[in-house]
Design a protein that fits this description.
single chain, about 425 residues, alpha/beta, TIM Barrel, eight-stranded parallel beta barrel, two-stranded antiparallel sheet, 13 helices, about 40% helix, binds flavin mononucleotide
Amino acid sequence: MSLPRQMHLGVFILGAGHHIAGWRMPGAEAGSENLDLIVRVARKAEEGKFDLLFLADAVNTRPDMHPSMVLRLEPLTLLAALSMVTRNIGLAATASTTYTEPYNLARYLGSIDHMSGGRCGWNIVTGAFAEAAANFGRDKHPEHDERYAIAAEFVQVAKALWDSCEDGIWQLDQAAGRFIDAAKMHTPDFKGRYFSSKGPLNMSRMPQGYPVMIQAGASEAGRDLAGQIAEIVYAVHQDMAVAQAFSADLKQRAAAFGRSPDHIKIMPGVSAIIGGTEAEAKAKLATLGECADPVVALRVLAERLGHDLGGYDLDGPVPDLPPSGIMRGHAETLQALAKKENLTLRQLRNVVAATMGHRLIVGTPEQVADGLQEWFEAGAADGFNIMPPWFPGAFDDFVDQVVPILQKRGLFRREYTASTLRGHLGLPRPEWGG
Ligand SMILES: Cc1cc2nc3c(=O)[nH]c(=O)nc-3n(C[C@H](O)[C@H](O)[C@H](O)COP(=O)(O)O)c2cc1C
């Protein structure tokens, strides 16, 4: 008898909250460098039986960036710390294929997988911030489609390096004096268009074989890469029909690459503002809106749309600007929302201040659970990337009040049944050389 399909849940930890004013809420902590807070959030997520936690990243900053991003800990270092204080939850983070070398990154991610007993996930990004180029001695950020070509090759090299050793290389035969089985070590000798790396990687095969591959591309090139390699896909959707079509498209692309559509999990972002009554939840949203810094909010919107918005009237219509090749998914979703609801630039700025373009559910715990159930049952999502407006309170509310409702409805696990991230997601461990 097959078990009923259940949703997957991840918490997207942006330390100061996803709402740009989240850090100003009573009891909120401004936490992107606050290890103590992040450990508490990770443990809370584990108490709620979440599949994974996720840390985003960029390799640049400026003073008017989103408060959660302006100053932050390096996420892979942070995952290593979290691996020591958690037991079951998946540990995922962004690492750029544009500004790292495959050999280095393969080691970092492999180490996290080893240290955590098979819980590592990698969000493969090509870099959403062009200013990063100057931090790496580059004149400019590579063009959009070239960044994806680099990313595809990067993943190929990383996999080859991760397959340097077959399973079972450790012998530790004290009597015979055999430390490892040298025949199980191979030299990938990868030579590509962008990278070459001889190998072998100086690490045995990781518990999961490869980390769980995550991708968030929304463009043609992004979706193609996701169809080929992603096991989790993050997305920015407001509209259920659009989300259904996106999910069907990604699953079809995966099938076209010979993969099972079940092995690519679509997890759109959702931010929930929870109150004892709908009115109470709405009052919290209003307070957040009043506390939001309009300059930072407009800057975040400009970043998402990929255009400078300085010259436009805030009370005029949202200008119809073409996607710029940086945050295409966000840009398309925001433009569609503005059109559908006839929003002014000021109104769209306020939407971005709240969720950066992701879906927002404001209401009672039941209403939040209903909103998740509806999309899950309609095939618009396999799960959700939960984006709390602030930490720790808003996330505690989700775990304490929404998760039990999902569990009661049979939509979410009550206990972990696996100890690896692949296990939580129902993904097979890849064969060596796969
Ligand atoms: C939930 C989510 C998380 C993301 N995290 C990051 C990140 O940490 N760093 C980054 O540079 N881009 C991040 N992105 C941006 C994507 O990697 C991608 O560049 C963007 O969605 C545009 O897609 P496209 O390049 O295919 O047009 C994220 C996107 C989403 C939806």
